[in-house]
Amino acid sequence: MNNSTYQQLCHNLEALKLPQMQLHLSEVADFVSANSLSFSEGLLKLTNFEADYKAENAARSMVKAGAFPHHKELEDFDFSFQPGINRQEIFEYNTLRFLEENENLVFLGPSGVGKTHLATSIGITAAKKRISTYFIKCNDLLQQLKKAKSENRLNDRLKHFSKYRLLIIDELGYLPINKEDSNLFFQLIDMRYEKKSTILTTNINFSDWDSVFYDAVVANAILDRVLHHAHVITISGKSYRLKDHIQTEN
Ligand code: ADP
Ligand code: MG
């Protein structure tokens, strides 16, 4: 490629906002002539640089928008520490087939067993595939809904949270939920029911949800909708947070 053609091509690629193609132009041109590739093969190679870069950027911004508490993935999870968890089952959820069926996942177990880690990992997988995903602590979610209600924009806020293809509500039950908040939570769960998937993490057995929500009626209405199409992953192992503090006995 002569210098003038190269300069004009660079100029065009810059004007068309294709910086990766501009960056790799001379390298691809050299590769094409060294390997006697066709024009279309060369063009494919060059456009792949731009397409890959844009896809990576889009995935990165989806992960950022997901507001995950940390960037932990399934590869970072030590399944041998928590033998009660079926590794294969978790990897199956990580294929995101449950999203196609609008199914929910519920991670149930005591503190420190990896509920948030696993929920986050699956959420990050979804975000990387550019599926709209959002992570929020239950208490923050309730605060936001309550504030929206007091400002007469509850419907907008409910709609906002019901749009996510995947919503991860973390730490349900760590704090008691009063009557008003229970109703707000019900409204959101009802809007998402059979339309979108939700991942919940909780330390409260379903039989005790009466005591988390204001009364048995609302608790049952929520449970019904959450569990109707749900996979429940019960984790009953040791806390990973305490693993270095627990000495092996005798
Ligand atoms: P939970 O939400 O059940 O209270 P977390 O998922 O927050 O627990 O786990 C507590 C901490 O321990 C996190 O930093 C998490 O990444 C880590 N952790 C928990 N279980 C494992 C595990 N099996 N392998 C690796 N890290 C783990
Ligand atoms: Mg947690």
UniProtKB/TrEMBL annotation:
One of its GO terms (biological process) is DNA replication. CDD domains: AAA. One of its GO terms (molecular function) is ATP binding. The keyword Nucleotide-binding applies. InterPro entries: AAA+_ATPase (IPR003593), ClpA/B (IPR001270), DNAC/IstB-like (IPR028350), IstB (IPR047661), IstB_ATP-bd (IPR002611), P-loop_NTPase (IPR027417). Keywords: ATP-binding, Nucleotide-binding. Residues 101-234 form the AAA+ ATPase domain. Gene3D superfamilies: P-loop containing nucleotide triphosphate hydrolases. The keyword Nucleotide-binding applies. Belongs to the IS21/IS1162 putative ATP-binding protein family. PANTHER family: ATP-BINDING PROTEIN RV3427C IN INSERTION SEQUENCE-RELATED, CHROMOSOMAL REPLICATION INITIATOR PROTEIN DNAA. This is AAA family ATPase.
